TrEMBL record:
Residue span, Cation efflux protein cytoplasmic domain: 224-294
The protein, known as: Cation diffusion facilitator family transporter
Native species: Sphaerisporangium corydalis
Domain of life of the organism encoding this protein: Bacteria
Chief place of localization: membrane
Alphabetic keyword roster: Membrane, Transmembrane, Transmembrane helix, Transport
Transmembrane segments: 9-30, 77-97, 113-134, 160-183, 189-211
InterPro entries named among the record's database cross-references: Cation_efflux, Cation_efflux_CTD, Cation_efflux_CTD_sf, Cation_efflux_TM, Cation_efflux_TMD_sf, SLC30A9
SUPFAM superfamilies named in the record: Cation efflux protein cytoplasmic domain-like, Cation efflux protein transmembrane domain-like
Keyword Amino-acid biosynthesis: no
């Protein structure tokens, strides 16, 4: 996976979530807390999600063929979308069900020390995973705000891991709140309230991920900054007088299709035009290395004069 894919962040999150899932389930067996059960399923779902992201990266590296002439780069978008679906159907739906069930049929939390110990351990482990995702993201985020980074990133893995880890940390706080209130008040309804809060949080994160990855899956253009670089590279070629129109499409996080109609001089020979196109393609790839597929159509630029 490329630097933009955040392999280190995914592996860190996978290891943390597997360990946390086991610890939370053990705590559930000792306490009977629905918040702990919801958090166990949450961590297990997150572990499966990280495995899906790694699988998507591996499958995206397959070579192009006759059926898929532009390769399999969008596999990463597909598996990121599947992650959003899994987070909603397994994580959110299960937590919402358990929360409602526990509120309707409450029971006291047994051996709460187990729940508190596991939650503290889980918060520490998730904090490490979240910090790794932040460090990996900062390496490519630059001065972009976190909101814009999540919305505009073309590699889906880091935004997914960031939101998952953020949701996991907040979910742990909700679980700690529910268990603490249930123990202090002696009313098991609070445990169900904490579980319900976890479910609502996961549903919100799942919807955000689904919306963003759906946009990538359908097909997004390059950022305005990248398109400006492409136009500058084209118009910097001596044989190109103007970019008439430009279209870009991400075939994958690090694969960009560029299609442009360019204006050439009317007295250029075919050899001059061919040479100019070759030079323009070279300049584009130099300015934007991810521009892997380039189609340039030469034309004569005509201005329409207004008639009186």
């Amino acid at each position: 996976m490329s630097a933009g894919g955040g392999t280190k962040a995914i592996i860190a999150a996978l290891g943390a979530n597997l360990a946390i899932a086991v610890a939370k389930f053990v705590a559930f067996l000792f306490t009977g807390s629905s918040s702990m059960l919801a958090e166990s399923v949450h961590s297990l779902a997150d572990s499966g999600n990280q495995a899906l992201l790694l699988l998507g990266d591996r499958r995206s590296k397959r070579r192009e063929n006759r059926k898929h002439p532009f390769g399999y780069g969008r596999e990463r978008y597909f598996y990121a979308f599947v992650v959003a679906v899994v987070l909603f159907t397994i994580g959110a739906a299960f937590s919402l069900y358990e929360g409602v069930e526990k509120i309707m049929h409450p029971h006291n939390v047994e051996s709460p020390i187990w729940a508190f110990a596991v939650l503290v351990f889980a918060i520490a482990a998730e904090s490490f995973s979240f910090r790794t995702a932040i460090v990996e993201s900062n390496a490519i985020r630059g001065t972009t705000s976190w909101l814009n980074f999540i919305r505009r990133a073309k590699a889906p893995e880091l935004p997914v891991v960031l939101l998952e880890d953020f949701g996991a940390l907040v979910g742990l706080v909700f679980a700690l709140f529910g268990v603490t209130m249930a123990v202090v008040t002696g009313n098991g309804v609070w445990d169900g309230v904490g579980t319900l809060m976890i479910g609502i949080l996961l549903a919100i994160i799942a919807v955000i991920l689904a919306v963003e990855t759906k946009s990538l899956l359908i097909g997004e253009s390059a950022t305005p900054e990248i398109e400006e670089k492409i136009c500058a590279a084209l118009e910097g070629s001596p044989e190109v007088t103007k970019v008439i129109h430009l279209r870009t499409l991400h075939l994958g996080p690090e694969e960009l299709l560029v299609a442009a109609k360019i204006a050439v001089e009317h007295d250029d020979t075919a050899a001059d035009v061919a040479k100019g196109i070759d030079e323009a393609e070279r300049r584009i790839r130099e300015a934007v290395p991810i521009a892997r597929v380039i189609y340039l159509e030469p034309d004569l630029y005509r201005t329409t004069k207004a008639t009186t």
